[in-house]
Amino acid sequence: MNLPTVSAPVRCVVVVIAMEEEARPFIEKHGLKKHQEPGPFVSGSPMVAYSGQINSCTDDNQSHLRVHLVWNGRDQKYKVNNVATTAAAVATYASIAAFHPDLVVSAGTAGGFGELGGNIGDVYASTKCVYHNRRIPEGETGDLEEYGFGHYRSPPISALASAIGIKQGVVSTSDSLECTASDLQLMRSEGAVVKEMEAAACAWVCQSLRVPFIALKSITDIVDAGRPTEKEFYANLHSASSALQGKLTHMLQLLGQQPLSRW
Ligand code: ADE
């Protein structure tokens, strides 16, 4: 399998985000401009694109990074944010076709695990993305079970993660906010520290198209604390989205125009 190129300078980044509430702080912080009709996507697509620049802040480099934030938009019928994997995969594919980025980031909020040191407001970068609800028996052809889990590796960026003060670990995806006992067992066996609803779908598209990919997720709720997820999620959505904005900005400032392999 050909791996994504991490030795090219990062000049253009696509940030894919599911919820408008998660995207708003970053759009406002950087004054990103909304694309007007006709937008960059096929007419009728729900995604909404915003573009702008971020100044790099490395010692030896004063340059700009082109940033396209793509919000998955709202469902035509239910008017809610297009969360979960179907919209995430479509948005990622369409954004790569439209903007040809050097890096895609799936940014958003997520559940953390208290038993693994997770706290509300922590921000994590992915080392790997997996699915915890795609249970497919091996079959006669061999690798269907592992295909189901996904195992999409992110480029190694531990120096970058230390520089911006974020944690790193396995990010696990399903289409549900809650999880079953077997979902939990699978997340534990994969060593997942983050549970969310989009990253693995974006990662699969990026792996297929050989575009480097990182998930960056801010914790709104603790999966193993025995509290109702939805209530905790909405109580912390605003503060977690603000923390996400800060870390995403710092990450892009440090990345500007340098290859990912530098980290
Ligand atoms: N997004 C925020 N919290 C989540 C959780 N616990 N599970 C899935 N997605 C989430």
Beta fraction of the residues? Answer: 25-35%
CATH topology term:
Rossmann fold
Count of spatially separate domains: 1
Rg over CA atoms? 17 Å
Biggest β-sheet: strands ordered side by side in the sheet: 5-9-8-6-10
Number of helices: 7
Structural class: alpha/beta
Task: Give the CATH level 1 class.
Answer: Alpha Beta
Which range best describes the helical content: under 10%, 10-25%, 25-40%, 40-55%, 55-70% or over 70%?
A: 25-40%
The beta-strand count equals 10
Give the termini separation: 23 Å
The SSE order reads: EHEEEHEEHEHEHEHEH
From the spread of the alpha carbons, the general shape counts as globular
- Stretches where pLDDT is under 50 for at least 5 consecutive residues are none
What would the average pLDDT be, to the nearest integer? Answer: 95
Topology record:
Elements: E1 12-17, H1 20-30, E2 33-34, E3 48-55, E4 64-71, H2 85-99, E5 103-112, E6 123-131, H3 144-149, E7 152-153, H4 158-164, E8 167-173, H5 181-190, E9 192-196, H6 199-209, E10 213-222, H7 229-255
Parallel strand pairs: 1-4, 1-5, 5-10, 6-8, 8-9
Antiparallel strand pairs: 2-3, 3-4, 5-9, 6-7, 6-10
Bound molecules: adenine.
Adenine (ADE) binds next to strand 5, strand 9, strand 10 and helix 7.
Word description of this protein:
With 263 residues, this protein is an alpha/beta fold. Helices cover 33% and strands 25% of the residues. The chain has helices at residues 20-30, 85-99, 144-149, 158-164, 181-190, 199-209, 229-255, and strands at 12-17, 33-34, 48-55, 64-71, 103-112, 123-131, 152-153, 167-173, 192-196, 213-222. A five-stranded mixed beta barrel has the order 5-9-8-6-10, surrounded by five helices. It starts with 11 loop residues before the first strand and ends in an 8-residue tail after the last helix. Adenine binds next to strand 5, strand 9, strand 10 and helix 7.
